[in-house]
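Hello,

Our lab assistant flagged a job as stuck in the queue for most of the afternoon. It eventually completed. Since we weren't sure the result was trustworthy after the delay, we are filing this so someone can double-check. Below is the sequence as submitted and the structure that was eventually returned. Let us know if re-running is recommended.
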Amino acid sequence: MSRTPLLDTPPEVAAEATAEARPRRARRWRRLVSPVALVLSWELAARTGVLAPEKLPAPSDVLATGWRLSRDGTLAVHLVDSLTRAGAGLLIGGVLALVLGTVAGLLRLGDDLVDPPVQMARMLPHLGLVPLLIIWVGIGESLKISLVALGAFFPVYFNTYAGIRDIDERLVEAARACGLGPAARLRHVVLPGALPSLFLGLRLAIGAAWLSLVVGEQVNAQTGIGFLMMEAREFSQTDVVVLGLLVYALLGLISDLALRVAERRMLTWRRGLRAT
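-- returned structure --
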């Protein structure tokens, strides 16, 4: 079967696309240079005695500890419990923030009733509310999930609110003039316009959620990465403490990367400024 000339990619276009892809792949590898150099320097300093092993063990020792805890199932048990708490807190705080941020952003009455108390509450450091939360919900799972939910709430709320309010009102008026009803305007104008800010809020919320979980799992926990670190501290197992920190860092990095991939796929229409 012969190929249709109109559907063929012109050679100059294909060459240009290939030329653009090569620097992009090179930049991806370049981003690994500084982390790899940092880890190698850490390993060298630990092996030569510059860093005392009881203060900061070598990365290879930390990885060996992680392999040992993974092989006997200990790390998996604590990891699953931490992920469950983080997921529940993110879901509760994120959904509540999304609803309230949408109401405050779209409705004048919602702005008057919802935004003032939220603006007041955001001035309080949520980790400083631990004593009060212990009185309210106890020291069980509810405390840990509540801390994660509080940490996730404010970034999602404020970015949802700002994303809606930053939409050009002329676009909404144009959609109304074209005959689009309220539901259609929300779908075709408000939602696409607010999505970039919403994704930023979700990325900030995930970071705040992991930070909150670190604190929550150090309060009367029996499982979780934070509990594993606290238990290791009692026995001066620095390698386990560092392993817990690395697990938290990897969880935050993986979740952030997943959001960035979803953002690129959902916001293919957006063309922002690229670094040179």
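-- support follow-up --
The delay was a queue issue, not a problem with the job. The result is valid. The CA atoms of residues 114 and 120 lie 11 Å apart. Confidence is low (pLDDT under 50) at residues 1-7.
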